[in-house]
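Instructor's aside before we start: the two examples that follow are unrelated to each other. I chose them only because their records fit on one page, so don't look for a connection. First example below.
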Amino acid sequence: MKKIIFLITMLSGLFISADAQSKTDFRAFTWGESLEQVQSEETAKFIIKDKDDMLEYKDELGGYDCDVIYTFNESDKLISGDYVFTKKYTNPQLYLQDYNSFKTLLTEKYGKAVSEKENWSKNSTPSDKSNFGQAIADGNLILNTQWVTNRSVVQISLNSGNKVPFLHIHYTTKSLDELQDKVALEKALPKL
């Protein structure tokens, strides 16, 4: 009887945990929330509002400084979010270490990735993993792993800009249909 009670308790905890995870899509927000709501509720340090479709903040994720970027559609509804890590290393192999650490965490949260790619430039040949950091810094290699949930596509990538690797995690809504301006569409109906 104790085993059954323990099992029921564990299963209900899993369902509650899964339900809690599904209530947000990026940080504490769900796709379709307004720019004003995100701006009023985000607790990270505000940096800039750009072109009325993007908000940028500074924060820390897992002990790493990062920019947090929210992107909104023309109806001011949240459609994507990004973590752009800002830490700089002299050894490019350390960027690969960070990529693998966050890839492990994302796999723990979202399960097995739907795709994992090593994209080598046409001018280069795959090398052993001990040189991947330099290959990325040189612009010869891009690493990319992607997960898909019921509502989102989550992607981590490691590539290079100006000979400096950068790590980026991108979250985007899986379906833009729910984010359309329903009122505007209904007003268009009589005109069709």
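Example two begins here.
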Amino acid sequence: MNGAFRNLSPIRICIVDDHLVVVEGLTYFLHNQPNFQVCGSARSASDGLRLIREMRPDVAIVDLSLNNSSGLDLIKDLQYQSPEIPAIVLSMHDELIYAERAIRLGAKGYIMKDRSFETVVDAIHAVLRKEIFISDAVKNRIMNRLAFPLCDGGNIAEALTDREQDVFRLIGQGLRPRHIAEKLNVSVNTVETHCRRIREKLELNDMKAVIEAATAWLQQNPSNAL
């Protein structure tokens, strides 16, 4: 097996990260993997872009927080100048906040720094297979948004009145109309009227769809829970 790997061209990797301990640790680990070669590192977006342009690696590993610059800017510029070179974000920043944005800008993977180095290897192989590498939590969030495109925080605020949002939150928490009426100190008929309006405004077919949408909305926006 090792002989087979030696006959292959190495997978060349550039690392853009301003934490020396991360660069040295990741470089040491990758150099000890079959068929991997770290061909350079940089600490800022401008130096990283220059390095990638000169070295033409197979993969770039990029932090979001760089010296006086942003890894997101680097990813955007890299996508414009060299879209054939996949970028993987390796960051301490919460993936539920930044992963979708990074992917939209052109990144092909997102890994939190609390994951193992073996995860980085998995991500490299995945992006070289033309796959997107993200956690199951981020995948589920994206799928929920695709399934319920009207149900992100901004659209809910625009589509529903304050009272309808209250009812929608409580539906997402699993409450039935009678319990919602008691909690909001209104009649059951009033709650049912709100439910009908919510269904119409969000273009949902029935109450089952309303319940699924409300549950997904709270999962995406846990701060909206009462």
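The radius of gyration is 23 Å.
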